[in-house]
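[Automated response] Your request has been received and processed.

Submitted sequence:
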Amino acid sequence: MWPDEVDDVLGGDLTCAIAYVTPAGGAVVTAVAPIGLRDREANTVGFTTSLGFGRKLDRLRTEPRIAMAYHAREHGVGDGANRRYVLVQGRASFDADPDPDYLENEIGPRSVRYMGEPRRGFFWDRWLQAYYADRVLVTVAVERIVAWPDLQTEGAPLVVGSERPAEPPKPQPAPKKGTGPRVDAARAGTRAGELPHRLIAYVDADGYPVILPFAVTGADSGGVSITSAAGLPPGGRRAGVVAHRYNPKLIGLETRQHTGWLEAWLETVQRTRGRRDVSAHADARS
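Generated structure:
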């Protein structure tokens, strides 16, 4: 389905971001390690997650539409000169009962290429049970791939699969408790701006999440100003953001995750405002 230059990204990146839909019609975005899981003939991509993250799996079971953003080339195994930003949208499915044989003979050896040999022994086997034994394979049946020529989503993207929605998503009703900050928005924005990778997710007109990179242009008690080269939809809506950095083999990483209210007055000039905290959880507003 997709060309070789996109397949190199899907197979090479050490980490990608996933976004799933919340019951309120917003999006949560977080980083995962896809370890090159994809099948061009079957038109699928995938990742693994821990049974310990039950809420994520519950959300995928209720609403399987998902997005994956391959947004960084550091420490991967593909062509580092390939600067494409690749957004995959599709429907997720999974088996909640991990297959020990598949984990041992397929996922284990595959992950070594990206993250090195796993630690073994009595202590590590117990301590890392959620990572080595209780993993669930999530398979995404691809509906659409949008590939920009640049990691900052500059330029016209290549679209593979179904066409993108012709119109932007309609604005959503504001939360009953308002869209004001629930955390120190200035602090949250400053910390996010210090990390190399920053992504925002919202739900598009067709119900699939969209994940785009953004830059922080300002932060104060009223919110965090951001810009996105690809543009964000006008009006107010629930959104999620993640900012992160990671080291080779994912040994050492820093992540700041937020949800909130995004209000865009111009397609490329936005603000995010802090809301509830879930490990630096925030709302967005302009």
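Summary generated for your ticket: Residues 146 and 159 are 5 Å apart (CA to CA). The chain has a mean pLDDT of 85.
If you did not submit this request, please reply to this message.
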